Amino acid sequence: MSAKTGERGMTIRNLHHAIDPKSLAVIGASSRQGSLGRVVIDNVRGMGFEGEIWPVNPKYSEVAGLRCYARVTDIPGVPDLAVIITPPHTIPGLIRDLGERGTRAAVVITAGLSKENGLRQAMLNAAKPKLFRIIGPNTVGLIVPSAKLNASFAHLQPQAGDIALLSQSGAIATSLIDWAADNNVGFSQIISLGDMADVDAADCLDLLAGDPKTRAIIMYLEAVPNPRKFLSAARAAARLKPVVAIKSGRHAEAAKAAATHTGALSGADRVVDAALRRAGVLRIESLGELFNATETIGRFAPLRRARAAIVTNGGGAGVLAVDRLMDFDCELAELSVETIRALDQVLPANWSRANPVDVIGDASPERYRAATEIVARDPAADILIVMNCPTGLASPLHAARAVASLSQSGTIAGKPVLTCWLGSRTAREGRQALQEAKLASYDTPADVALAASYIANWSRAQESLVRVPPSRAGDETLHDSETVKAIFQRVASEGRRMLNEPEAKAVIAAYGIATPTTLVAASPEETEEAAAELLASSARIVVKLVAKAVSHKSDVGGVVLDIATAAAAREAAETIAARLKAHDPSAAIEGFAVQPMIERRRAWELILGTNRDPVFGPIILFGSGGVSVEVVADTAVALPPLDNVLAGDLIDRTRIGRLLAGFRDQPGAHRPAILSALCALSQMIVDFPAIVSMDINPLLADEDGAIALDARIEIDPEAATVPGPNSDLAIRPYPAGWERDVIVGERAYHIRPIKPSDAGLYPTFFARTAADDIRLRFLAPRKSFPHQMLVRLTQIDYEREMAFIALEREGGDLAGIARLYADPDHETAEYGLLVRTDLQGHGLGWALLAHLRDYAAADGLKCIEGIMLSENSKMLRMCREFGFSIRQHPSDPRLQVASLDLNSDSADG
Question: What is the pTM of this model?
Fold first, then answer.
């Protein structure tokens, strides 16, 4: 059984006409020297485009030696791609005329089509009926060297290569083209995105992910207009090939009017960092790093850890490298006792006996080789940095040859090797010998340390990429969503946005975050009574202000600590009331919160929080807490949903995260308790779209656990009744709610959404599936399924694509797969279905298809379609019985199209 699922994502429909056109119309081509139309037509001709070229301009009968046509309707054929360089008001009509001729893609170089003048929307309206794709407007253009296509006004003809460039800035694109020409770097594609009225960075990432001519992708970004779509595409591309990005605007001002510390601390640029890391993209800071970073990570596979070990003949050079490694938050490997002993046997007595391994300035080639080989074998060394400083005692070239003799495709003992031969004249031959052995070579200690940071940061991003936290995480018995829902709805019914402290603590306690016992007193007299009750079991208590109008109690003297008697508690309440009246006479007091004084002298004060970024939606913040949280500014941010691994990464990206591990005689904090609190916060964000912001500050953490002393929550009252999962999440959680157990015939199966780890199930599945079934599924014979394809099939992000697998309950083997790709408008989706040959004919395909249909309907899709070979009688019969309508494919008589309207009665199965 099979139906075709597109090999490309649906957002790239018709874009193949742009990147591999067989004919081209240049509308606005000109013979006038210095005009834009002249530069573009000269570039088209200069790169040697081999298809038909049709200039269009009523002013000329001939342009660039080619016949020129007055109108689009005069062109003798149908151009695959149009390049448009005409006044803005002409663009919508040209798009309409081209669409009616059969053209499906255009590069609109013209600027001036804005929302304000209505021309942008008019252009899109003209394109929509024909699914006409537009790159631009206001773009430098499109260059595909392998297709000999230069549809741009760039000043140079780039050489062909395997790096793709996406740029939201035309000036940056042409600058990188210029740099690449001087450094012998070639491109597979260069796409200047312009104003991105239609085709955006996400569409291009989808396109490039499946491009066999593209080995790596580099991006220059200024904005992310559709973050969920962008992250979905970036995650898909980064699973298959290195993606490196520069995002400008790193110091954009954060929101000033945030109601919580988290809002003031998150900062737009740090959220971009978190988003790109979660997408598996390596972010760098300068254009000068772009190609070096791409080349570095393109050489190696991601590492589980990235601890660097250094071998050098100059102690000073090694120290410089260590300094820069520390600047980049890289780790140094701690060499084992066995490694030290082995090095003692081959190095002079005065060697450093530590990492960096100083082999001394007179090191012979044999000493270099032996030391490098020993260090590479150390289990703690993940990256090997080998350095050489020129001396009069040994030859840099001979040392390079000794190291190069160990190289196996740029690695030694299977580990990435980065080399740095310092100097110029005497180092040149050594660098050449290293490069000939495919070893990465860098000029300075700072350069080689930066390269190590690329590997480390990319590896961490790749680890984040494959995490798929569920929509319901952890122990669900700790998540009392009904209690939280009731509190939010009560607060909303009172017209409030801010929860008071007891309400906020009740919310986080409902999700398993420990809080102290809190009694709320309406007056100083009741405060005295509450204090007496708590002092029966606690040596000291705390009294805090409860007032809707006060965001931060400490700012108005609303907290009194270390109270030993009930009378003192009453006095504290009276003092707090007087302070508030002096600060703001109009502020109303709701009461006073009385709780035990939690004294954990060896505990750290932490902050956990969430806020809404205007682009990427909800974010999670973690770091050093307490009243000085904004001054200390030791925090990191991440995108929800989190699991324990992602939460651990968030902790480890802070300075206090290192202290929490323990040091000297200070025991470490109870990490599982902190992880549990972060995952609970993440789950609240998933479950309750109403949450606008939250602070849990401080969360006290020590070796015995973690407890939240204070909490603040702001909600959107209008969203208090909106159910989860939260649709504002930039990354969709693993949809655990779509797991099902089914009985088909006499066999039991577990149907669930696919996970990245399922790639290991495919080889056995395909081995037990007949070649003809595979041919029918993929519309062509397939003898093998490369690992890259299995990665692409299993590592999805559930946003535009869904796949369900059926696992045999007994044994857990893969039994069948159903897959769905949604179109850009999220109205129609293409589906695919394959059941293992030995299990066909018993109803498993029907069960998978029904599950897929139910999901599609719940996800808001209006129709699902499958394309299959006309000879696939089993699938066609099942589709008819299921309620699909069948029609012949409009352009291929060998194919049939099966469509199911999800709004009709037939969709009920």
Answer: 0.83
